[in-house]
Request: fold
Amino acid sequence: MLLTLTPVPQSPQYTTESMVRSGDFTTQLAKTGDTFTGTPTTSIVCTNGPDPNPTLLMVGSPVFDSTSMKILQRIKGGVSGAVYVLSFVGSTTQGNTWEGQVTFQVVGG
Reply:
């Protein structure tokens, strides 16, 4: 079963910043007593702006947080003025696959 969440707007990020963005599934997983398991995946697209290779923003591999209810991905750089959508996908102990998205803009810094 694929359960999809509505994209969540997040605060802008400076081109010089390196920060961890998260897909927070705490509310949804807590309702069923489910937790993530296995290896999460992430992907990123530029939805507005001139970035020809948005995957360069992702630093390292995504991980689950210590509670196994959030998926974390470090993001660094980007093109000033560009808007990105970062997608998170994780499988759970009950056999579900959860997908979530956050959107953010990169600004000059």
Observations:
- The radius of gyration is 14 Å.
